[in-house]
Amino acid sequence: MAANLSFDEIVGQIRGIVTRAQILVEEVPAPQKLAPYAFAMTADVTTLNAIDNDDCDDEDLATARFVLLHDPAGQEGWLGDYRCVTFVRANIDQEMANDPVLASVGWSWLLETLAKNDCEFTAPSGTVTRVASSSFGSLDERADSAELEVRASWTPTHGDQIPSHVRAWLALLEQCAGLAPIPEGVSELHRSPISK
After folding, report:
1. pLDDT digits (tens, 9 = 90+) for 54-109
2. Quick check: is 76 in a domain?
3. What is the spatial distance between Cα 91 and Cα 49, in angstroms, rounded to a whole number?
4. What are the residues whose beta carbons fall under 8 Å from the beta carbon of 106, sequence distance 6 or more?
5. With 0-12 CB in 10 A as exposed, 13-18 as middle and 19+ as buried, what is 92?
6. Which strands form 23-28's sheet, in the order they lie side by side?
7. pTM tops 0.90
8. What values do phi and psi take at 129, rounded to 5?
9. Residue 191 falls within a domain, yes or no?
């Protein structure tokens, strides 16, 4: 189904999305050869200390990328004229990395955030990867680490609902990063809309 809004109008709505204080979202150059129209942004989840103190060495808890592709003629496999392509990577503890159902849980988080944001879509595809790393030799002092990666793409059924798909992606990022949900009725500090 064709969107009632133009690609530029949809991008304008995406740029107006306000995120939690712990999430820094930036517009980045979009891939040019995948579709006639493209928009991309990254998001990083930091600790509040890292936000308040520019000298803080805290690492990001999670990082993500969102790409919106649009081909008015559609493309084979999309089953529509828009495609959302996402990536989320988050640090996790070793115990979680050893859980054999983690990949299934990561995929269910994506589907749940899309459902909670009333996103209608088709042709979902993706992978969930868990990576556990141990260092040796001259890197022996590094602590063991583990990460969860969710890579996914899907076709929004209605182009004018794409900002809801972006909110679902941000919710997935929050969940992977372990940010606690904001209780209903509680005001949260917000960051400015997406920076260009």
Report:
1. 444 455 789 999 999 999 998 988 999 999 999 999 888 777 777 778 888 899 99
2. yes
3. 17
4. 128, 130, 148, 150, 176
5. buried
6. 23-28, 37-45, 62-70, 82-92, 145-156, 121-133
7. no
8. -125, 135
9. no
DSSP 116: H
Which residue range(s) make up the domain with 87? 7-177
Report the DSSP pairing between strands 121-133 and 62-70.
Answer: unpaired
Pairing of strands 62-70, 82-92: antiparallel
In a domain, 186, yes or no: no
At 1, is the pLDDT very low, low, confident or very high (cuts 50, 70, 90)? very low
Number of domains in the chain: 1
d(CA 74, CA 14): 21
44 domain-assigned: yes
CB atoms within 10 A of CB 69: 23
Helices (H), the chain: 7-15, 48-52, 94-97, 102-116, 162-177
